[in-house]
Amino acid sequence: MMGDVTKPRARVSKRIAAIEPSATLAVDAKAKALKAEGQPVIGFGAGEPDFPTAEYIVEAAVLAARDPANHRYTPAAGLPELRRGIVDKTMRDSGLSVDWNQVLVTNGGKQAVYQAFASLLDPGDEALLPAPYWTTYPEAIKLAGGRPVTVFAGPEADYKVTVDQLDRAKTERTKLLVFVSPSNPTGAVYTASETEAIGRWALDNGIWVVTDEIYEHLVYDGLQFTSIVTAVPELADQAVILNGVAKTYAMTGWRVGWMIGPLDVIKAATNLQSHLTSNVANVSQRAALAAVSGPLDVALAMREAFDRRRRAMVGMLRQIEGVYCPMPRGAFYAYPSVQGLLGKTIRGARPMTSSQLASLVLDEAQVAVVPGEAFGPSGYLRLSCALGDSDLEEGVARLQALLGEAR
Question: Are residues 142 and 103 in the same domain?
Fold first, then answer.
């Protein structure tokens, strides 16, 4: 029929097409690809420990693989033994008493992040997101129909937001707050009193807290990790705790995380997971059970190495004119401000953003870093301490040489 022209439909949904790729994974992949080509690239992009998984954990997986019981479907919420093990671990490390039915085992921490937001947010709900933030949080919030409202704290505040900042950002649409301590990407750690103040504010305002505690065992300088639910026990009915074995036990590839929360939220998230992925691989769950039930010797050894490396890295970064780098108190990252270098000429180029500077650094110094745009405002770089001491020293020395040319 005349004029009957059907408009072609988009091949990819608008919702999925709007997702930004993980910048940290992209930088790490590019660094590995260049290394595979024989280029001497040193990568500071990886967000994973450079240590092998402990042998006793690996052995638990080997034994599990030989047991036919692990060759079948198991409950979507996780093996009961692992859920109980997480309950015991939570009491041991945080002093929190929870029931095993409040635990949902997920395919890594990212699935826990996604399911927490999907279970709590409706379209139009706002989520307060302190920045700099891990790159996945805003994308998962938007996928759930929510709107991330960033609250930025700069290096002069050690990248920690205040109650006053949160209060100014709150509206009648605010449903939840994302709270992360120790922080990826900055390494910031909130003190017990700061954590309690934010928890009290959330409780008083009826705001949910989604707290990511995956770096709980990586704190330095005599600081102690404090769970926001431990600091404010009354918050338990409006809080979801996210965690996993990836960072503490060098198990990033095993893909085991978990959510802890009120029964109704965990039931809803379990229903979602039953349609999304069903149970986490049983062999990985058995390995995770060995990890959470075992000693913390591995975590303490890694913490000692990361402590040494972060001090060496920050000391060298602070020698570069135009770079300001607070000392990270947790995790295994440094997050220097490079705003003093933007707009200056470096080997014929004049980077105006941290993204442009990161590209220049990769091209000219063969050092891979993640630009601040992945985590919030431009003007910063994230460097991981999760690489060998000699590579770390060589990589930062290359940065010193290149960025020292800025004029």
Answer: yes
